[in-house]
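[Q] Does anyone have a clean structure-token version of this?
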Amino acid sequence: MVSFNKVRILSRKSDLAIIQAKEIGNILQKKNTNLKIEYILKSTSGDKDLNTPLSEMPTPGVFTDDLRNDLINKKCDIVVHSWKDLPLDTGNKTFIAATLERADQRDILFVKKKNILKIKKNKSISILSSAPRRIYNLESFARDYLPFEINRVDFKNIRGNIPTRFDKFINGSDDGFVVAKAALDRLLINDIKKYVPLSKLINSYIDQCYWTITPLSINPTSPGQGALACEVRTEDTFIRKIMEEINNKEDYECVKKEREILKKYGGGCHQKIGVSFFNMPFGLIKSEKGETDSGDSFYSWEINSNDALKEKVSKNEVYPYSLKDYKLFSRVELKESIHSINSLKKYCILIARNNSLPNEAKIDESNIVWTSGLNTWKSLSKRGIWVNGSSDGMGENSKSRIESLSTKPWIKLTHADAPKSKITKMIPTYKLLELPITDNINDKKHFFWMSSSAFKYVNKTFPNIIDANHYCGPGNTYEEIKKIIKDPNKLRIALSYKDWKKNLLND
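[A] Here you go.
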């Protein structure tokens, strides 16, 4: 335990900033029980100017520079920022000494329930957001992943803290509003008694909306979103030491990588650039999407430093070369499942694939709808079903992180012989029937599996393939195949069939 008496923590005056500062202070006190914390609050130039869009502000540090000056002048010991607010160059007089475990990086989109008929009629939606990066991402997202036809997406500027913005949205005429989910979570779930009425107010706003959490694979966020930056004086080795004790090194490194990429493109709030890194048990995931100042677009969704095979691979050595070849089963719908689905109320429903939900089934509005991946999400949206979010191809064991929005129990729609998984309650909606395998699969050397059922069936028919190279997505498929393929060098993870094929064949 470090021996010291008092630390002064400075933050902005907003409700969220105070909660974040106290989050740091509470952790420091747990590590050092004799520590006293003094909280100091200050308005910044960004707090005072609520009209100019952030992308048009004269300097990038409108929420941080004023606080940093007080730190340099020894009016405080630590400044707590939202890391995404920090400019790329903070000078050499201060140092970001720590970050805590990162909160949810994703954005969340709210759409007013009372505006749905208007949206459907006009085939257009107006969304409150002033961030160029969000505008760039959300236009295509709204067209493809919302459950109605959208021909036009209009964006309007909005400023202010989150309660103020939410109030403007609910009491205004616009249809949608987007916000960082981490910020919302902190306002809804905290142990500060003062903010209980505020969380109730925000929940009353949420009750008037449909919500959907945008997936990182196609909506990477601002570098550092969801992470807190603890800034100290570079010369203050004592404070740096105590901050090092609470630093989450993995999340710190992810934020550094995100900021390095933003710096490569020039940086700044005006840019249409999103980049997100996050750790999974099988590796570091990178999502990068945007448009440069010269108008060039870019996109990547990959396992960083993927260990894909480097030798030249022929298309005759891979299976399936085309998804048309991947017809191993027919599916027989279990009609009795329709009544069970129609009876579900107040559940979080994970839909494993599009045909896991029978066409005749109706999902009650009290339920949350979650999908395993984005293809299923898009298909369900075309059926007019509101989807709240997705595991984004990361598997059931990835965190949904919706506790601030729903504590409903989970249930999964899948096939009758699906292996046991993290979600123990299931409704079997179809049965798999094996089809004859006409291809000579024995000659293949590289396989991609979209389900463990497919692997087990082919392996049973062609046992020699066990010595080939196998790939699949993360989650249950990987865990089940791993029980049979013991050699870790023979079973690797790819984020998608398309990604696997591109890595092997450059196709």
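[Q] Thanks! Anything notable?
[A] Residues 15-31 form the longest helix (17 residues).
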